[in-house]
């Protein structure tokens, strides 16, 4: 496999991605993408040396069928041409995934962006790739689910495996269980999926518990850490760092793929975690460092959920882009006045003035010891005891 290029990151963006639009009242509002891109531009992130902003063409049918059933792809096309004919049997035309004109092309373009980045990583044309329009982790081979039509993360991983990668780790930090991506690789020993999320006892999709470990051909290939509702920065970061780095190092992937859904935030209207922008920034920095440690620097970072479209999504993903560009933003960096004025004109509200929530985003590492009275620690230990031995790791000490 080619060595990664130096000091280069490709970021997928073009206003055409705003075409992924379920309608005016849907939580997955495309304005979150536009505001993220505008904030990145106003902060000068897109103009940094070594940063390339790239568009993408829609993935073709052959590429989509690497992950999705042919009948499902045809159903998406039909619903795209005539939304009134959407078939609920494929998860289309539902409240979560209403059909809309041009849906196939819009969803396929997101796939195209992530696949292009993945192939560039394997070929050594870039060191890092960021597609904040992607991370559609609920889409399954035969149906849409949870605002996701096609699974770009899974398609990118399959494409990288076909292009020469032998092992890939997928880490999902969204508030919701990354069930669709997990399902695609459930019995594939070449791919390790790790999802740290709010427990399915309190949140969609109701799955992702510690005993969900993969198929008979890849036992241990799926790892799930289900956190209690209202987990805040310290518990969330402790959980991520008590499970993810150890497993990634053990698996030794050629590429690290991470999903950065920011619906973990305390202000998000759909989730029940209490994470700050500051903790999300710390997690992104940790994934970046882990890619350099474990996968030769090859890092594909994706967006995902996130439904507080002004205060949370743009700042979180701007930090992600800055991190991938090798020049993280100081949390106290002021939010540009031009961006805040745009928010004022567009939404009639005030925007945050700095790139921080003012939280320290600190945590105590697992080496401090297990607290049986703490619900987060109980969740961590359940996952470690279920998954770590399958990777040759000691759940109590590694």
UniProtKB/TrEMBL annotation:
Keyword terms, alphabetized: Acetoin catabolism
Gene Ontology molecular functions: histone deacetylase activity
Pathway membership: Ketone degradation; acetoin degradation
Domain annotation Histone deacetylase: ranges: 26-322
Transmembrane segment boundaries: none
Pfam families reported in the protein's UniProt record: Hist_deacetyl (PF00850)
Coiled coil: none
Any one biological process term the GO annotation gives: acetoin catabolic process
Family (UniProt): Belongs to the histone deacetylase family.
Protein name: Acetoin utilization protein AcuC
Species of provenance: Kineococcus aurantiacus
